[in-house]
Amino acid sequence: MPRRLYKLNDFSGGLNTVKDVADINDNEVSVGQNLMFNVYGGMQPAYIMTDSTNNKISAYNNSDISTVQPGYGLGYFETDHARDSVTVTYDNATMNRQNGFDLFESDGTTRHPTAGDNRRLNLKVSNVETNLASSFPIGTLLLLSGVSASTRSFANNRLASSAQGIYTVVDTSGNDIILDREVEGKFAEVDPVDVDDRFSLILKGTSLGDQVLLLADPAAHNIDVFSTTANNYTHNVITLNSTVVSTASKVKYFRIEDSIRCCDTADKNNSKIQWYGWIQRRHFEGANSTLDNVNSYMDYFPKDNDLAPPTEDDLASSSGSSGAVSGYPEDAGTSFEIAIATETDVDGFIEAAEYELASTFIYDGNQESLPFKYASTHIVTETNSLKSLSVNIGAKGPYDERISGGRIYIRKKGDDS
Q1: Could you tell me which of 316, 360, 376, 358 has the C-alpha nearest to residue 341?
Q2: Whole-prediction pTM value?
Q3: What CATH number does domain 315-412 carry, 2.60.40, 3.30.750, 3.40.50, 1.10.3470?
């Protein structure tokens, strides 16, 4: 019997499992194995849960998660930063020519006593150089912080506490790394040839690029995170519900830049929407903290996505000629303490009235919490009308890692603006 080649090149109808095979249209298919029809007019390879060679979910699912929720729970995003960081620490009272970190000018010459190009870090342990270049290749973001015994890091002829912060590795030389800017130190106070001029430090580096899979455990209500760079999972990174309930989680994801929101869409659940993403910031830039690892952040963090407002009520009101001086909040990370004073000897534009104040937190640079209204108010009397205000803010960290700032609002009591 003569035969004719019949070309099928239109699958815009997708998968049709309702009709009999003989009744489907020419642009439809009745059966598809390892294919997805989730994009109109196209077919895509589907994950094969039985293929443990190429699939990073199947073997893990069998051993760590008892079941998956069909159609939910698998998230993916590409990111500029590796999930896992590398930490190199030297923290020892023995700091001499053979032990500890040292700082040189970028060309390898002895560091300048007062100022210069002091950007090159070297580490020796028992007179053997540690290969910092292999741990922190060019392009690595580097968080430099002191150790808990602060004088091991910050003392005469060692570093200044202001040296703490986030740097970028821009070059390597042998085992040494060269940073993008000078590392500040106290090098003029002791003879530079002092035998005890090495120091202790914590270096935490994150390399560039990663692909991240998120796999939800619907029974335990948490999410594990897989890194293609590290080629492994980290367990229970994100917790949707701290209490196990009978309702299985149905997790959907919404990705924005280097972060992803994780939402349990199951009915009658009391899970929290979670935010998981990269945070790179230093609170209180320039602060002379002797221990900066609670002030600088450079990592992936799981956080509640509720944009929590300030909570502590600390406002002091006064008038006089000495200015406002605030204290600090009683509890770290809860709020800002405000001192507000009418400057009786400085003319201004503040009318006599009772003023109320509120504060907010700013998250990720562009999201603001609801305002927290302070119970106390500031009263400007008729005598002090048209004088200036002095405002002083006290802050006590650590604050939530996502917080990038805050705002203070003031208005006449009872006004709507």
Answers
A1: 316
A2: 0.77
A3: 2.60.40
